[in-house]
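A note on notation is needed here, since sequence and fold are reported together in a single record. The reader may check this reading against the record printed directly beneath this paragraph.
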Amino acid sequence: MPSSIKFEQVAGVAHVTLSYPKRFNAMSRAMWRDLRAVFERIQGMTELRCVLVSGEGAHFCAGGDISEYPDFRFQEPSLRAFHEDAVWGALSAMLACDVPMVARIEGNCMGAGVEIAACCDVRLAAESARFGAPIARLGFPMAPREAALVAREAGLSTVRQMLLEAAVFGAPDMLQRGFLSRVVADVALSKLAQASVQRICLLAPQAARQNKQTLRALMHDQLPALLVSAYDYADGVEQREGINAFLEKRPPAF
């Protein structure tokens, strides 16, 4: 079965699946390009309320497709293009997405998998999931932008151990380190992810998008620019419905 990024829309939820089962969903170059295209598409779909990111079968993503590496990693121009255009292009599209994203993580979440998970807003993991970036065993470092992303979400101490010791962490440890939102028994993960998606879908979708824009601006010290239009929602439908529903003691219909 060829590698692919599967996209399915069910009501207001986009299901994005990393699919390369025979390699534990390792990311091929084609998958990076497809991931970017999928999230650029999602950004323009105003009807979406949530994105669920997961891996095909029993793993989230085992890293990069090492079988492709001899084709491009030994020349500086092609190596740079891979990380700066293919990989960072996809991760940037995820980071720029205003739709809330939930990652459902099981099995291996290594290297590229950690980077993709780091772009998601809520990260839920099975108790047996494993996290790391043991690329030092392959003789190369993590690309700078990717390292900065993982360090921001997992913490510098964690990234130092992943990169310098090739350390692999269990899900409970990554929860304690602040990377994961929740960890549950393997059999309970799908139910937990579904519940998280449902909670997000019941809330005001435009408010969620604006919250993501605010959080992104905060990370990049761009709050002053955001303040220009920060309160344009004053006469919006969502705010009126939310407040009226509260006063009328009924659930809001967003």
The mean pLDDT is 96.
